[in-house]
Structure formats: C-alpha cells, structure tokens
Design a protein that fits this description.
- The complex is a heterodimer of chains A (424) and B (265).
- The radius of gyration of chain A is 23 Å and the shape is globular.
- The two termini of chain A are 23 Å apart.
- Chain A is mainly beta.
- With 265 residues, chain B is of the alpha+beta class.
- Helices cover 16% and strands 43% of the residues of chain B.
- Chain B contains five helices and 13 strands.
- Chain B has a 13-stranded antiparallel sheet with strand order 6-5-4-3-2-1-13-12-11-10-9-8-7.
- The longest helix of chain B has 16 residues.
- The chains are: A mainly beta (424), B alpha+beta (265).
- At the A-B interface, strand 1, strand 15 and strand 16 of A face strand 1, strand 2 and strand 6 of B.
Chain lengths: 424, 265
C-alpha cells in the first residue's frame, strides 16, 4: 500500500468520522492516574505542478507520521517525551525522530534547568529569526509540514534564572546543531560555484565543526518586562546555522559566528509592535576580504500587528540584512554577480481570517524582497473538524527575477500540499 | 431569647440585603467584584462543551488561577490547558489592567513559542468557544455606561452601552444581576440591527468558601444556533498564591503546586 492510498484512507475516515469522543464525564476520575499517551497520526501529500528538472521528481511531501507524547512529573522534577515515527516516501526512509526527551528540575527557588533533546525558541520575529539561532528546518517548512516542525530540536541544557532585576536564559548545546539546509534531496537550489540550479546526488553534505567542547553553541538571553514592555538582550557564540562558507577543498561548511542583539515588544495602537536587532560577527572573516566566508551583517526587524476587523488580523514586518564591507566582498568575490546586495530588504505580511468559531482559519503569509526581486507566498487553509480530526491545505509559491536569490532559486520547487491528522 | 435572635437576624439581613441600590454604576461595581474578584485569589478547573450550529461537539479542559492585585483593580490570570491533546500544555497568561490595555501571552509548547496577543482581539472566540477572551477576564466597568432600567424582587436589570462602539460587536447589552449575590444571572447582547444575538446565562450558583460562585454557565449564539457550556469544579479561594505564579516563568514551567487538584473538594 502506498503512502498515497493510506492518506486517501485517512481522508475517507475524516469525511465519515463519527463523534468518537471518549471523554469520561466523571471528573473525580479525571486526574491522571498513570502514564497517558497522546499524539496524532498524520498523512501528508505535496507535489510540484511539474517535474523539477534538477531533482527529476514532482513529489515534495509524501509521508505518514505517528506522534507519541507523554510526560510525568512530581513536585521536584518533570520528564517529557515527544517522538515521531515517520515513513517518508520522498526519500524512501523510515525514521524515528525524538522531538523532546527532557528532564526538568527546579533546584533553586529561582532556577529552572531543562536537560535533553528539546525545541528552543526566543526572539520577536514572525518567521524571521535574528537572535533565535536555534536549529530550524526550512525544508519541512517549504514542503508544507506543520509549522511546529520549523523548529528543529537540539540536544541542549537550558538554564533559566529569575531575579527581580533581570531574568537570565542560558542554553548550551555541546554539539553544534545546524539548520536543515537545502541539499538537493527534496528541493533544488542555486549553486554559485556551478552558476546554476543544482540537485546533487548524493545530496549535499556540509562539513560540520569537529565535536570538541569548544565547538559547542552558547546562547544567552537577558530579559525583563517593565510596564508591559518586554526588553531583551541576546548573545550567541557558535556558527552560522547554514553552510554559508566554503573550506579550502571548496566544500560547504559552517563558519564561526558570534551574535549580539536586542529586542523589545509591547502593546501599541491597539496592536503589538516589535523591534529587534542583531549583529553577526563572522569570526573567521572580520575584514570581509575572504571570498569563501560570509561577512559581518547587521540585521534589523520592525513589526506591527493588529486585528483589522473582528477575526481578521494583519501583521506586517520590515527586515533588513546589511552586509558590512560589501565593497570588499564584491572586490574579492569569485562570482560577484551572485553575491547578495549590500542591503537586502524584506517585507512580510501575515493575513489571518478565522471563521466558523475558529474551525476554519484562512491564512496568507507573504515574503517579498524588493532588493532581491523575489517573493514567497504561503496561502493555507486549516480546518478543525473536531477535537480528533484536523486538516490543512496550502501552497508554497516561490518566484524571483534572478535564479541566485534566496526565494528565486526555489522557483521550480513551488508546491501544493494537504495534510490530515487524527488526534488521540 | 430565640424570637429576639431571629428578629435581630432579620434586622441584620435587612440591612445587608434589604437595601435597594439605585445607582447603576454602583450595582455594576458590585457585580464586577462578585463575578471576577471573589477572594484574594482563586483556583478552579473548567470544562467547556462547545456545540456548534450543526450539533457537533468539541471540548476543552483547563485550570484557571487568578490573583487580585487590588479589589476591582488590576488582576493576573493563568490558564493552563490539559485537553484535548492538540492544546495540551498551552498556557495563557493575562496581566489585566484597569484603564489601559491588558498584557496577554500565549505559550505554544510545540514551538516553545511565547506569543504576545494583541489587545484588540478581546471580543473574539476563546479557544473556539462561544465565550470571548473578555468573558474570561472580565470587561472593565468603565468601558460602558450603565443605566438601571428595572428592579425586580430578585434582580437589578441594567442596560449597558459601550463608550467606544467601534471596539465591540454589540450596540448594547442588558444584565439581570441577582440582588443578593450581585452575580449576573443573564446577559443579553443586541447588535446593530437591533436583534438579540448572544446570551450568557448562569445555570448554577453555589457558595464556595463563603463566596457565591457561578459553577455552571452557558453562552448561546442566538443567530446561528450553537452554544458553549462551561462548568467549574474544584474551586478554592484565598490560597495565598504569590505574584511569581503569574510571570513568564509559568508559561514554560507551569506552577504545578498551584495547578494540581486539591486532595478533596
């Protein structure tokens, strides 16, 4: 039985699903008596409109996934687990993926420690990440997996210290955890070396930092809320999360990087404003002269969102990547025509309309870069039929004037997807 | 002695309950205290059954912690969801302010995301129910003008008109406030076409730790049909919760000490 037919079966189940609600009405027995598993089973299908000349395939998403979740806690510690069993027909692989396996402790009155495989998020951007340098999975995001999967887990220790003056978050990831990057396996991408779009087979595999302790990642956030305004400053020492550098063998690798930044978020004009800034120090190319290593960058984000009319929300963001010593970059570049502009401007819009008591959610997210002359449209429709059955359908549409820009390189990867989920 | 005591009792209760209020603002102030400020703090477990216009059912289960900074003034709420499985672990934190916008956050455990919620959407569905966010944390009395339109044996009947009509979907609403408990037994909303379209009603009230408390209520959509029933259980007041329970720490690390159910009801 193919994944496609199994998913069709899930659809049929969705359309005929009865009220199979098994809630016990006796509250006294409701309190957890032991380990209780929850989770979901999901089928997903996604495809390009045409066969991609590079990957030679149409399919972008064809998978069956079962999620299992559990947790246990007493007064002093908590254990959490979330794991997926996944059959991915696009890469013909069965996989067990642990998303969360953590031990949480509160050893001091003001200290929380969480140890293990976990998903980590901070910062104020919506699908734009400046100071959040935790691992992300853009491949799954482009293919139409649930937005939850945009955040990839990492094996980390997180310390949260809460004081009256400031709250401190410190995350140590002993072994560098990169983003899921474009490898050519599912999506083709632009190679500046080849000067064209490629989908290497075997897929691209970047060189990761050697696994000694000094090559770990350190992420720090100091934050405080004063009169409803959230202030935060951030620090990071590690590596670019994408393989943006080329080593002497011209193999892609993750250059060393340190980031410093700050953000604020508050209610304003009956909505929310957020601002965030981050400076990326490219530690191995601080002069900006090495053509194989990215230069320093200043990143800036401004955002505003509010309810326009009842159940209709509008959110807009402006984002800037300012590449420092851009003239030196161009001067030393091996392929200056493919280098990024000095100022990469990006606008995003998120429109959300919730209908039928939030059962139906229409959403459109747009990335548009006037400097790169490219865009990425993500319309989607989410339907919550019941507490058990949910479905989502959407499109990822990439286009651009040039084949080397971030979204422009993906234009042959535009796809539509649908997912059906049964929660248990 | 006995008849005297009884007479005294009548006299005392006559002073407390027999007094008929005539000022709408005063009644609303009392009703606001009774509905949202009972005790210094409280804990309760809630269950909602959401019935849509076609009779299909959804459920939500959550625990609500509340703490008053000042009676009738600023408050803090923490709502922790346990069911259904796709909202399990979601936590909603509100710092309610009188006279300015509330600060609200939602924690989504799947993404480890602390999402700020803008103040504008207070009159939108609370997690898919017929209740609004504003019904959970209360609507500020100063946001409407109040007029006492009738006083019956059991109720004060008031009509409320929003001072800023652009912010809300109603033109006016009428409340039936119990003269003894000051709890609203019924609230009915009228829309721009002059039609009654939404009703909130108390189905059961009990006295808990000395505070009259609505333990069961229903909100109905009178236009499309459908309603949400909300029941509260395991309610306790004056637990001595510290302010630290209502900080961002509790989003990622919910305060189990206060969320867990007391041993006996």
């Amino acid at each position: 039985m193919t994944v496609r037919s199994l998913i069709l079966l899930l659809f049929v189940s969705l359309s005929v699903a009865a009220q199979d609600d098994a809630w016990d009405d006796d509250w006294a027995d409701e309190e957890k008596t032991g380990l209780q598993w929850s989770g979901f089973i999901e089928g997903a299908l996604g495809s390009r409109w045409d066969t991609d000349s590079q990957t030679g395939s149409k399919g972008t998403l064809r998978e069956l996934r079962a999620r299992f979740e559990n947790d246990w806690a007493n007064d002093s510690l908590a254990i959490g687990f979330k794991g997926d069993a996944l059959y991915d027909e696009v890469i013909e692989e069965f996989d067990l993926k642990i998303r969360d396996l953590t031990l949480a402790l509160s050893p001091g009155k003001n200290l929380d420690i969480k140890l293990g495989r976990q998903v980590l998020t901070w910062g104020t951007g919506d699908l734009l990440f400046l100071n959040d340098l935790f691992a992300k999975d853009w491949i799954g995001f482009f293919a139409g997996r649930d937005s939850e999967y945009l955040k990839a887990p990492s094996n980390s220790v997180r310390f949260n210290l809460y004081t009256n003056l400031v709250n401190i978050d410190f995350v140590w990831t002993p072994v560098f955890e990169p983003d899921e990057y474009l490898t050519g396996e599912r999506f083709s991408f632009f190679s500046p070396l080849a000067g064209r779009k490629v989908a290497p087979d075997p897929p691209l595999s970047a060189v990761e930092p050697t696994g000694n302790l000094s090559n770990g990642e350190f992420a720090l956030r100091l934050f405080r809320t004063i009169n409803g305004t959230e202030y935060a400053v951030y620090g990071y020492r590690g590596f670019f999360k994408q393989p943006l550098g080329l080593n002497v063998q011209l193999l892609p690798y993750f250059p060393a990087m340190t980031a410093l930044g700050a953000s604020l978020r508050r209610s304003q004009w009956s909505g929310l404003v957020n601002a965030e800034v981050s400076y990326y120090f490219s530690r191995d190319d601080s002069s900006g002269t090495d053509p194989l290593i990215p230069n320093d960058q200043l990143r800036l984000l401004l955002g505003f969102e509010r309810e326009a009319v009842t159940n209709f929300n509008i959110a807009v963001q402006y984002y800037l990547e300012w590449t420092r010593q851009h003239d030196r970059l161009i001067e030393h570049s091996l392929a200056p025509e493919f280098e990024t502009e000095e100022h990469r401007h990006l606008f995003t819009t998120r429109l959300t309309y919730r209908a039928k008591m939030d059962k139906l959610v229409w959403s459109l997210f747009v990335f548009y870069s006037p400097s790169d002359k490219d865009y990425y449209l993500r319309p989607k429709l989410t339907y919550r039929r019941s507490d058990q059955w949910t479905a989502e359908a959407g499109v990822s549409l990439f286009a651009g004037a040039d084949k080397h820009t971030f979204f422009g390189q993906l234009d042959d990867n535009s796809n539509a997807y649908v997912r059906v989920r049964y929660h248990f | 002695m006995k008849p005297l005591l009884i007479a005294l009792g009548f006299a005392v209760s006559g002073l407390v309950y027999g007094q008929v209020l005539t000022d709408g603002d005063e009644i609303v102030a009392q009703a606001n205290l009774a509905a949202y400020y009972a005790g210094k703090d409280s804990r309760s477990e809630a269950r909602m059954i959401i019935i849509d216009a076609r009779g299909r059912e959804q459920r939500r289960q959550f625990t609500v912690l509340r703490r008053n900074l000042e009676a009738g003034g600023d408050q803090q709420f923490l709502v922790s969801f346990s069911r259904p499985s796709d909202v399990r672990g979601t936590v909603y934190l509100v710092n309610k302010h009188v006279g300015r916008d509330d600060d609200r956050w939602l924690y989504l455990p799947g993404l480890d995301l602390v999402k700020r919620i803008s103040a504008g959407d207070e009159r939108t569905s609370f997690v898919g129910a017929h209740y609004f966010y504003e019904d959970v944390s209360g609507r500020g009395p100063a946001e409407d003008t109040h007029e006492l339109i009738a006083t019956t044996d059991q109720h004060y009947v008031l009509k409320h008109v929003p001072k800023n009509p652009a912010q809300v979907e109603f033109v006016s609403y009428v409340t039936w406030i119990d003269r003894q408990t000051f709890l609203a037994n019924r609230i009915e909303y009228t829309n721009t076409s002059g039609k009654l379209y939404r009703r909130v009603e108390a189905l059961e009230t009990r006295e808990i730790d000395g505070y009259p408390t609505v333990v069961s209520s229903r909100t109905s959509d009178l236009t499309n049909g459908g309603y949400t029933d909300m029941r509260f259980r395991y309610i306790a007041y004056d637990l001595g919760m510290p302010a630290a329970v209502f900080t961002q720490r509790s989003l990622r690390n919910p305060p189990r000490q206060w969320l867990k159910r007391p041993d006996a009801e």
